[in-house]
Model the fold of this input.
Amino acid sequence: MKDRLARLGIKDINSGISTVLYHWNGQGELIDSFSPTNDSRIASVNLGSADDFEKILSIAQSAFLEWRTVPAPKRGEIVRQMGDSFRVHKEDLGHLVSYEMGKSLQEGLGEVQEIIDICDFAVGLSRQLYGLTMHSERPQHRMYEQWHPLGIVGIISAFNFPVAVWSWNAMLAWVCGDVCVWKPSEKAPLSAIACQNIIAKVLKDNNVSEGVSSLIVGDRNIGELMSKDARVALVSATGSTRMGKAVAQNVAARLGKSLLELGGNNAIIVTENADLKLAVPAIVFGAVGTAGQRCTSTRRLIVHNSLKDRLVESLVSAYGQMKIGDPLNKENHIGPLIDEAAVEMYLNAITSALNNGGELKYGGNLLTNLGKCYVEPTIIEVKEQIEVVCNETFAPILYVMAYETLEEAITLQNAVPQGLSSAIFTNNMQESEWFLSNAGSDCGIANVNIGTSGAEIGGAFGGEKETGGGRESGSDAWKAYMRRQTNTINYGKSLPLAQGIKFDF
Ligand code: NAD
Done:
């Protein structure tokens, strides 16, 4: 790992690492980055201070004045080079993500692939930032709209996707002409520093101002500064609903823009017309992948009464075959939780479910022989949607509920505060269409015969209700990173007023 870190520009791994921009260091306290894979300290990192934040913002502000004037396809060319650089560093960065966050190596590499993919997407987008042309009601007038850069985009990211979610924001923001200030999760600072090093080199090679991409390693205090600062035109925040509510209030108080990607509580409905050969692997991957630490993890299974016992039996058998251990070992399917606080939440949720009528079908134990953060994936059957089922516990716990009518199933699926991802398994067209209709799933993502977990970068990603309502990544999500301007041009020799108003003088 030491060699990989060195190739990513992280050299001094035994003392404080203090890379923030090319040439100056974070001034705040030292924090440790731990690997949950083996409970070891990887390195210590200086947090950015309020003074650092101030310096970064003024560098970003002046960088914006230049960057916004670079033609969008030229900005796309720089992003293309960034994508190439991530291709070169994919193995090293994928290993670091896996080691620092604890997700499987395949998933760590998958995160870097997402960065590469969104770079490609953004390059194409840089030539497609289209506005509409409208017919004016006045003669010899032309009306159209165009999209301009917003300014500074503040990106607050969560630990579970320490790099991919940043790239969904940053690559789009850059082709849109914005500059970015990134505050990564304090639980995965090294992965962020590695990305910043890769970006910084591309910017330097192209003689582009460093302030186009700034990183400030900080805790929630820096997140709060960012939310309250009117110079940050858009705050794109990914994390818990608790965090999102705080950010939303701070940004709204100054009438700024926010894009919120918050917690999920995702369900799969399995009807009596489902193909279980498809449903079982989708449920298992969705519930145990990344040790249940994806915003799109499957947390609730709503299954038709007639199938419930058979399906639970198949799941218990599949869970028994899962290999848990060091995520860097490709043989293992499930790695650790992020830290001991997450283990505590896992245990508390299980206790609460069992105290409120839940029946344990699988798991529930810590795997202390592997380390402090390894837990068994767990299945609990519940009779109704009790309180703990309505909360997002960021751990591999699957709650199973039975239903009789599809209406009942959809009502259960929608009866939680979150609205991110959802899925139905059925071969019945009426059932799937109902689920996708305006009377169906209330989530931002609704799938048929594929699970809740994971998403392709081409679609707009995000969810409703307490998930925050933001959309990132594909489709027309780029519009959140720009401001729309409507323009009317009079090429005639008179000044007809709108609505036919006459104003004689
Ligand atoms: P978290 O809310 O604890 O922290 C997320 C980020 O917010 C961190 O960078 C943190 O420092 C910062 N932060 C915390 N409080 C803040 C405040 N008051 N003001 C400003 N910034 C603040 O979340 P986490 O534990 O890192 O990540 C897990 C959560 O993220 C889960 O709820 C998960 O569902 C969610 N998530 C959502 C998506 C999505 O796209 N919807 C993607 C990934 C993760």
Notes: Residues 266-448 form a domain with the Aldehyde Dehydrogenase; Chain A, domain 2 fold (CATH 3.40.309.10). Confidence is low (pLDDT under 50) at residues 14-24.
